[in-house]
Amino acid sequence: MKISRRLFIKNTGVFVSATCIPLSSGILFKKNFIKDKNVKVGGHPWVYAAKLPNYDITPVLETIFQDMKYAQLDGVELMHHPLRVHQSVNVLKDLIDKYELPVIGTSYGADMWDKIKHQSILDDVNRILDNLAAIKGRTMGISVGNTVKMKTENQLDSQAELLVRINNLANEKNIVINLHNHTYEVENNMHDLRGTLKRIPDIKLGPDINWLIRAGVDPIQFISEFGDKIIFMHLRDQNTNGQWTESLGEGDTDFNAIGKALNKAKFAGDLVIELAFENNFEPTRPLRDSLLDSRKYIKKEMDY
């Protein structure tokens, strides 16, 4: 059975007071994030993971690297599952060398608002960061977990507290964390995201343009407000009926305007194409061709 990206987010569990919680050493903003032509355009493997048990991409890692190399992408953003196992490090190193395609980083999600889970999440993240550092990954995009209702101030406090601890672990390994949003972080006047930023104003952002749109947030306004914090971005397209497209450029997302907004904000991070298909959608072409079409479109419309 095919699982939608939306259902995955819904089913995955995967700061103190409302005053600011300062980061002990600040968020590390790597100096090799350089403006314009050095911005990297990578790929995220969700569309592969959606078909797999537990969304674990380990069995198809070579296919992912092969397809993303074919698509002329600059790197791969992994999902965290392979990085939980140290044995994957050598496999990934071999693929990186074989396809001359680096791992940019990984996405990661957990219920960070739930203080009871903090230690198990920290243990999990520490293992993943160790393995990510071993393959020279440099970013981790973090999703903080959804709740049935809007998060309370106490839940936001717990969330921020854990993010600070994760950031400190990441800094030790020269990895930069960023907040990766789905809809729940940016709905209700961005209650969740603003709650985190109130507590950790220096944390970096890795927004997903399509989730912003689905939450009713104008991506241009978002970039205008938060551009100095954005170091990472997921790109996905949808039709006027709200359904995801097979490739970027087949829907009505204004990527040209988004590119101009990023340029105005002096964006100096990574752009990552993350394709997703609705339930029961049957692709009309190989995934690697959809990735290639998307890469060409981003070059044409966004000049990256």
> Can you give the mean pLDDT?
90
Whole-number tally of structural domains: 1
CATH architectural name: Alpha-Beta Barrel
In total, the number of strands is 8
CATH topology: TIM Barrel
Determine the structural class based on helices, strands and strand pairing.
alpha/beta
CATH class annotation = Alpha Beta
Question: What is the CATH homologous superfamily assignment?
Answer: Divalent-metal-dependent TIM barrel enzymes
* Count of runs of 4 or more consecutive helical residues: 11
Low-confidence stretches: 6-36
Largest sheet: 5 strands, parallel
Radius of gyration: 18 Å
- The 3D shape can be described as globular
Strand order of the largest sheet: 2-3-4-5-6
* Helical coverage, percent range: 40-55%
State the main characteristics:
three-stranded parallel sheet; 11 helices; 304 residues; TIM Barrel; alpha/beta; 42% helix; five-stranded parallel sheet
Structure in words:
The chain is an alpha/beta fold and 304 residues long. The protein has one domain (5-302): Divalent-metal-dependent TIM barrel enzymes (TIM Barrel, Alpha-Beta Barrel), CATH 3.20.20.150. Helix content is 42%, strand content 11%. The chain has eleven helices and eight strands. The strands form two sheets. A five-stranded parallel sheet has the order 2-3-4-5-6. Strands 1-8-7 form a three-stranded parallel sheet. Strand 5 (176-179), helix 7 and strand 6 (204-205) form a beta-alpha-beta unit. Helix 3 (61-70) runs parallel beside helix 4. The model is unreliable at 6-36 (pLDDT under 50).
